[in-house]
Amino acid sequence: MKLLGRRVIIVGQGVSGQGAKHALDMAGAVSSFYPEGKASAEFMVVSPGIPPDHECFSLKIPVIGEFALGALINDKPVAAVTGTNGKTTVCEMLADMLSAKYKVALCGNIGASFARVAADGGYRVAVTEVSSFQLEHITGFHPAAAAILNIAPDHLDRYPDFGAYARTKLKIAADMRGGLLVLNADDIPSGLLEGFFPDANVRYVSLLGRVDGAYMADGALYLNGCRLCDRSALKADGDHNVANALCAALMADYFGIAAGDILKVFGAFEPGDHRIKEVGRKNGVTFYNDSKGTNPSSTLAAVRALSGDGRICLILGGSDKGLDYGELFAKLPDDAVAVITGATSAKMRKAAREAGRGYILAANMRIAVEKAFASGCQTVLLSPAAASFDSYGNYAERGEDFIRAVKAL
Questions:
Q1: Whole-angstrom Cα distance, residue 403 to residue 409?
Q2: Which helix (H) or strand (E) segment is 82 a member of?
Q3: Is the pTM of this model over 0.90?
Q4: What is the DSSP letter of 173?
Q5: Are 200 and 180 in contact (CB under 8 A)?
Q6: Which pairs count as long-range contacts for 272-278, CB under 8 Å and 24+ apart, including other chains?
Q7: pLDDT at residue 166 in the model
Q8: 265-276 pLDDT, tens digit each
Q9: Left if phi > 0, otherwise alpha if psi is -120 to 50, otherwise beta: which for 115?
């Protein structure tokens, strides 16, 4: 798509919108933020946060997403990662691995917008975290390597059903032209892949059996059939992070990264803030912040990661994404305690009762932490299984509030 002289409107003025404006200006387009210029616009660029029912879509002009704009401008190999959970961790690990050989840009749903990074250039490989929102209006995206880490119900306040959400995730590989596609053999329901035949070399990650790709067997991690290391060589805890590390390793190997450089990252990498981070101890109780756990599957992964640390008290609740919490309560350890707060409180209480589980109610984060501390559990885990927008601007603000409440005990 030629951009010079094209009249474009941009919908959304956050990180994505500003990145799109920067990229369009550099390309010589005549761009403005919606609604200015809508009468004469030839097409529009929408930010991922713009909902499908926004009035801008009534203009009946071509639409692309900000991420798609970056794909159109970009002229370097891209490693793209999507999935319900684990995207940021895999992207950060992969960027660290690739940095042993290349100048890497880490962007997309993490950090700078892809459009801005593509316009500025100066990198050899782009590692992009790609959300379902960014894939809604994708076009012309040909990643050299892509990964779908897992697909579980999420964002059902935006999509009509789980199938629609899942199909959006699969769009990351819709226009591949060869290259590597990594799929998690354990964590993508097989029915979702019916009729999915991407033009790519498909490889797999598994913790449950040997696959063509990367897997765990007998306490060791394997890459392309060769033993890579013991599981204990991985610094990040939890089975979910083993799967994340194997995915990053498989993609790094595709880009020619040596096993030694992959292992260096295995031994040093720690997930970022608000991802199962210990934030305090008091009177034999350890507190963990997993504020980024915004759906039930993520929360259950966090619980499993801490299952050896004593009885768990889980702080749950936030804003509703249209999710079902029945499976969450059904799969919690029998002795786990749930403290429920936030806008999803009524929905979670109903799910807990239907699963035959008790619960504790709390009006806010401070009270939730106090009640969790008094529960008699050895581990307190904030992993809300819900978004944060009922009380906070984002998950990070929620996590910081949790940390303040812990320190105030």
A1: 10
A2: strand 78-82
A3: yes
A4: G
A5: yes
A6: 272/88, 272/89, 272/92, 273/396, 273/399, 274/395, 274/396, 274/399, 275/88, 275/89, 276/237, 276/238, 276/302, 276/305, 276/306, 276/381, 276/383
A7: 97
A8: 999 999 989 999
A9: alpha
